[in-house]
Design brief:
- The protein is built from 17 helices and six strands.
- By secondary structure, it is an alpha+beta fold.
- It folds into two domains: 274 residues, no CATH class; 109 residues, no CATH class.
- Strand 2 and strand 3 form a beta hairpin.
- The longest helix is centred in the N-terminal third of the chain and has 17 residues.
- The two termini are 36 Å apart.
């Protein structure tokens, strides 16, 4: 049973990535290198600006389970230090003398959040809380921050937070680190949006209406004998059967486009409908890229962001891989590099995430290393957290950067 579950999870994570094992084609590397050469020339001619760290300070982490949260929070407000609280509340857990940072960001719903977290240094643990942001949380005179959760079944509230030793402060970063950040910002234009759906319209629930795109897909499946679903089939057998059918997609599509006028007519009309109504479909994108125009296919992909239903939903990462691949073929550098880094960082929209699923995904760093990029600068520069309200910056995930370096070695 355990082995079957493991195999199932592996298949869910890998999904249909088999269709595209790599992102960058060898034939596209010279053209991409030419773009990099031009960008690096601009970097050498530009002046490195000053960058500042995220606000940081030292603090103590506290956590308590209580049936009387109002009393604890009232005492927290009055207390001059955590030792006073520890004498009054015996179940209070404390982790002292932590390095903590404060970060304001927007989540996948475009809601502004405040994150405060500590780092695992020496005997300390890493802790973190996330709060809905408001201006009052950004004041310098605040001594503590906390979040709470109440278990309605047993009416126990868990309160966790940080008690600050000093105010948060940003520091001027050394020139070497600023050079990394500047390199990243000029190679990965922070203002570039991969998707056009700025209002995140793909997250909402909408009534489904059949269109000519469905007619195209149904006609293709009929003409290529898509394996029918059989009740007695198990998941692994069904997946294997579909994978074999999918592996012949390019051959099938080319033959139909050349020899079947009805398929060709449906494809052209479906593409025109999709462009006019700003909608998309994976099969339509594949057919368009292969048979009509890679640039038009890329524009289709950028119309609708996929949001994963759970941490094992690989749809959003497959979409970013396909976008990065097409962008590399059409020399759309800004979209290519940002979508590639999103794949490397597993930086996509999902309703839930877990380390198990995320850690199983590849970084593809060995492909990026084939380009004439300064890999160290782009990895380290995107990993540095900075405080700058006037400009954006691409941020990588520290654990993914570590994994990328491990893959390079």
């Amino acid at each position: 049973m355990t082995k079957s579950i493991y195999i199932l999870l592996s298949l869910l994570i890998s999904g249909n990535i088999f269709c595209q094992n790599s992102i960058i084609s060898e034939s596209d590397i010279p053209k991409l290198d030419s773009i990099i050469k031009h960008l690096e020339k601009n970097i050498n001619q530009s002046e490195t600006p000053n960058f500042y760290s995220l606000p940081q300070t030292s603090a103590s982490y506290f956590e308590i389970n209580t049936k009387d949260p109002k009393n604890f929070l009232a005492e927290l407000k009055k207390s001059e230090n955590l030792e006073q609280l520890q004498n009054k509340f015996k179940g209070l857990q404390i982790d002292n003398d932590l390095l903590v940072i404060k970060n304001v960001y927007s989540d996948y719903k475009n809601e502004k959040k405040l994150e405060i977290k500590s780092f695992e240094i020496a005997n300390n643990q890493n802790h973190g809380i996330k709060l809905s942001f408001n201006d009052s949380l950004n004041q310098n005179n605040l001594k503590h921050f906390h979040s709470s959760y109440t278990n309605k079944r047993d009416s126990i509230t868990t309160i966790r937070g940080f008690y600050l030793n000093n105010e948060f402060k940003s520091i001027n970063l050394p020139k070497r680190i600023s050079d990394w950040i500047n390199y990243t910002d000029l190679i990965v234009r922070p203002e570039t949006s991969i998707f056009y759906d700025s209002d995140n319209k793909s997250n909402g629930f909408r009534a489904y209406k059949r269109t000519i795109i469905d007619s195209l897909v149904n006609y293709y499946e009929l003409k290529t004998n898509k394996p029918p679903y059989k009740k007695e089939q198990d998941f692994i057998t069904r997946r294997k059967e579909l994978n074999e059918w999918q592996s012949k997609k390019e051959k099938f599509a080319d033959s139909l486009y050349t020899n079947d006028q009805n398929f060709k007519k449906l494809l052209i009309e479906a593409l025109e409908y999709a462009e006019e109504n700003k909608v998309s479909n994976g099969d339509l994108e594949d057919f368009t890229a292969q048979l009509i125009s890679k640039k038009r296919a890329l524009e289709l992909m950028r119309q609708n962001r996929q949001v994963g239903t759970c941490s094992f939903d690989n749809g959003p990462i497959i979409q970013q891989k396909r976008i990065a691949s097409l962008a590399s073929k059409t020399q759309n550098w800004d979209v290519f590099i940002k979508s590639f880094l999103n794949v490397m960082n597993d930086n996509v929209s999902r309703n839930a995430n877990s380390n198990i699923a995320s850690n199983a995904r590849k970084t593809y760093i060995e492909e990026l290393a084939k380009l004439d990029l300064d890999i160290d600068k782009i990895l380290l520069g995107s990993n540095v957290r900075i405080e700058d309200a006037t400009r954006k910056h691409y941020f990588s995930d520290g654990s993914k950067i570590a994994k990328a370096y491990a893959n390079l070695n």
